[in-house]
Design goal:
Length: 104
């Protein structure tokens, strides 16, 4: 599982997105993705379904289109993503920079 998460993290870094996954989520993914007969293919499908699929829309059209951070947590046995956009942070930073330039 760590290999799949590392690959996903590398892909997200190229898009300026930080990935955070709680230990509870990792344990849930391990239980959902374990299949002695299918091996790693089952884990790949589990990662795609529970991590990559929710990220796709946020990366293309949503909160992560301009970068940011995604945090996956477990809530009632459901894997829930929370998105923090860099776009909002950049706007706040630019306003502060503009104020500092005016006072100089």
């Amino acid at each position: 599982m760590d290999k799949f998460i590392a690959n996903l993290n590398a892909q997200l870094q190229l898009k300026n997105v930080e990935l955070s996954i709680s230990n509870e989520v990792k344990l849930r993914l391990a239980s959902l993705g374990f299949d002695a007969k299918m091996g790693a293919r089952a884990m790949a499908r589990t990662i795609a379904l529970h991590l990559k699929k929710p990220l796709a829309e946020a990366l293309l059209f949503g909160e992560l289109a301009h970068g940011g951070k995604v945090i996956f947590k477990l809530d009632n046995e459901q894997i829930i993503p929370t998105y923090l956009s860099h776009k909002n942070t950049l706007k706040k930073t630019n306003k502060k920079s503009a104020k500092n330039e005016l006072t100089l």
